[in-house]
């Protein structure tokens, strides 16, 4: 079957985001991409996945009429089912509010069905194609479990909100997802962390990873995050007097928190500076999140983890918190952790399509890499250079071998190199095809990239890409980590050798690179190791602050000439200033 999965941005919500498309043919992922990479608007806010859908169809070599089914990541029935659950939960305490909430959920169910038709028409798809709505959290869970290769597993989904559910824990086997507990709004781990994100001066639903990066600089005992998030009896709740209050109670008009939080924590952070107080708040918020998640796993997944040999699948925006993921791996009952590389809403395009394929008896192939987006060749590079305004100093190298040697020589000499190759990655992590690379042992590399190239906060860390056969020596673990979505403590031996990719707490978020997943990138790291003895490259995404990751050679040139980059390798072409 040819199944197209679409992320259905809820256009009537305050923050519609992360439109994306993915296509499966006979259980194999053929293509997947986020709309933002084509429109160059981060998170594709308010956009329908028109360009992403066209790309997927083109990559598959099929027309819209050839699609057998369209799977959406939003189900009208879930609004109705969960809406009634919330009504019966709240009607005895606040009957008028419960009835108002129920009416809104039933209206949103109708809007969701209308939205499906709108997206089908907007993407130029055949309106006669079968449309299959998939519950949002089921799509998240499937995006991790269905593509993990596990025969069975416990699963955890945590995000801001799906239709109505915000956190789901369950057991998965074959094509079946069996929820054990579903926690419904207003209580949300994702929204709790987004409120802290807003308070610390970052954009909610975008800057949460910055809070995670700030946390190791602070002392969790220096602030009280329990005022926002409390947990007990296998559940949790957020304080609605602080988180998402009524408009007249909000701080500074449109913030996600109330004046009460400012009374408790003091003035919110502004600008790029980081005071000890801010770091303490980030540390406390991170610690409280970790405690709440461990509480949920203890309460609901213990027997499941025993039955399935300790396999856990994790998805939803909260699954992008790599420090939390490390703490999950540190549990004695979690032996293997699979986190969907596109754990945010974009990944539900894969999950929805994968769940439909599995339910119809197809064997879905595991996700072994994330190189699922557009590609280009040297002819495309030539055309981009010709169209770019002004002189582009460049030369084409004779072969991939020469390209690898040239880039390895530059990196070994301590130069920063932008590396634009092959198919674009799916998900928020650059995994060696749309990357900025540097020497992890050269002092000042991190500061140079933060200040002159990415224009971002100076305390932000970078990640290591490491040869898979050397990963254990560097991070002290054999656990697979191909997608840069798990964190490990760097071994004492390597902390001093690769300080530019070691965070202040001694951790790193590595990508273990194999020749099967990315032969060219593997060869580059190996060539760098031959020159330096270090099997690691500093790797960060090829984009500037506030922009999506680069997609095409034209995008690469735009960034190159709009930043402090001095060298860009696109395909077999070296561009220099």
Overview of this protein structure:
This protein is of the alpha/beta class and 577 residues long. It folds into 3 domains: 2-136 and 351-359, Nucleotidyltransferase, domain 5, CATH 3.30.420; 189-339, Nucleotidyltransferase, domain 5 (2-Layer Sandwich), CATH 3.30.420; 378-576, DHBP synthase. The chain is built from 19 helices and 22 strands. An 8-stranded mixed β-sheet has the order 13-22-21-14-15-20-16-19, with helices on both faces. The protein has a 5-stranded mixed β-sheet with strand order 3-2-1-4-5. The protein is globular, with a radius of gyration of 23 Å.
Quick summary of this structure?
The protein has 19 helices and 22 strands.
What order do the helices and strands come in, and which of them pair?
Blueprint: E1 2-6, E2 20-25, E3 28-34, H1 36-39, H2 50-60, E4 69-72, H3 76-90, H4 95-122, E5 130-133, H5 136-145, E6 152-158, E7 165-173, E8 176-184, H6 189-199, H7 208-214, E9 229-232, E10 235-238, H8 259-265, H9 276-300, H10 302-307, E11 311-315, H11 322-330, E12 336-339, H12 348-359, H13 378-387, E13 394-396, H14 400-412, E14 417-420, E15 434-438, H15 445-453, E16 463-467, H16 471-475, E17 488-489, H17 492-495, E18 507-508, E19 511-513, H18 519-532, E20 536-541, H19 553-561, E21 567-570, E22 573-576
Parallel strand pairs: 1-4, 4-5, 6-11, 11-12, 14-21, 16-19
Antiparallel strand pairs: 1-2, 2-3, 6-7, 7-8, 9-10, 13-22, 14-15, 15-20, 16-20, 17-18, 21-22
């Amino acid at each position: 079957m040819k199944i197209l999965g679409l992320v259905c941005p809820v256009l009537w919500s305050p923050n519609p985001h992360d439109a994306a498309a993915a296509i499966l043919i006979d259980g194999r992922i053929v293509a997947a991409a986020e709309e933002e990479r084509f429109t160059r608007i981060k998170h594709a806010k308010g956009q329908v996945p028109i360009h992403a859908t066209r790309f997927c169809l083109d990559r598959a070599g099929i027309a819209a009429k050839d699609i057998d089914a369209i799977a959406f990541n939003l189900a009208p029935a879930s609004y109705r089912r969960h809406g009634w659950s919330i009504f019966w939960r709240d009607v005895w305490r606040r009957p008028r509010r419960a009835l108002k909430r129920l009416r809104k959920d039933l209206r949103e169910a109708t809007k969701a069905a209308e939205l499906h038709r709108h997206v089908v028409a907007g993407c130029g798809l055949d309106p006669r194609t079968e449309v299959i709505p998939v519950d949002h959290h089921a799509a998240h869970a499937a995006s991790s479990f269905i593509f993990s290769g596990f025969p069975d597993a416990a699963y955890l989904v945590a995000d801001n909100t799906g239709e109505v559910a915000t956190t789901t824990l369950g057991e998965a086997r074959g094509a079946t997802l069996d929820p054990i507990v579903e926690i419904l709004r207003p209580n949300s781990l994702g929204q709790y962390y987004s409120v802290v994100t807003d308070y610390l001066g970052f954009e909610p639903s975008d800057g949460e990873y910055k809070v995670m990066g700030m946390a190791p600089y602070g002392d969790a005992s220096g602030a009280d995050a329990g005022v926002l998030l409390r947990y007990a009896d296998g559940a949790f709740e957020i304080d609605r007097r602080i988180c998402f209050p009524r408009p007249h109670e909000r701080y500074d008009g449109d913030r996600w928190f109330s004046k009460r939080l400012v009374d408790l924590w003091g003035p919110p952070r502004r600008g790029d500076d980081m005071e000890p107080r801010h770091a303490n708040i980030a540390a406390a918020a991170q610690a409280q999140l970790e405690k709440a998640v461990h509480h949920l796993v203890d309460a609901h997944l213990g027997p499941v983890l025993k039955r399935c040999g300790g396999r856990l699948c994790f998805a939803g925006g909260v699954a992008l918190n790599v420090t939390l993921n490390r703490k999950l791996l540190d549990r004695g009952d979690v032996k293997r952790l699979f986190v969907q590389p596109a754990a945010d809403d974009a990944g539900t395009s894969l999950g929805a399509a994968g769940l439909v394929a599995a339910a119809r008896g197809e064997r879905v192939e595991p996700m072994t890499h994330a190189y699922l987006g557009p590609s280009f060749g040297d002819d495309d590079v030539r055309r981009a250079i010709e169209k770019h305004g002004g002189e582009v100093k460049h030369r084409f190298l004779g072969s991939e071998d020469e390209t690898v040697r040239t880039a390895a020589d530059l990196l070994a000499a301590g130069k920063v190199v932008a590396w634009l190759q092959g198919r674009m990655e799916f998900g928020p992590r650059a995994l060696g095809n749309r990357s900025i690379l540097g020497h992890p042992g050269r002092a000042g590399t991190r500061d140079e990239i933060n200040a002159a190239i990415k224009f971002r906060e100076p305390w932000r860390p970078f990640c290591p890409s490491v040869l898979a056969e050397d990963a254990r020596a560097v991070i002290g673990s054999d656990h697979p980590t191909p997608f840069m979505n798990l964190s490990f403590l760097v071994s004492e031996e390597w902390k001093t050798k690769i300080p530019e990719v070691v965070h202040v707490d001694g951790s790193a978020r590595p990508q273990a690179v194999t020749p099967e997943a990315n032969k060219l990138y593997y060869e580059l790291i190996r060539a760098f190791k031959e020159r330096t003895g270090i099997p690691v490259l500093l790797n960060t995404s090829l984009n500037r602050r506030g922009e999506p990751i680069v997609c095409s050679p034209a995008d690469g040139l735009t960034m190159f000439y709009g930043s402090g980059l001095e060298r860009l390798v696109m395909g077999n072409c070296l561009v220099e200033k």
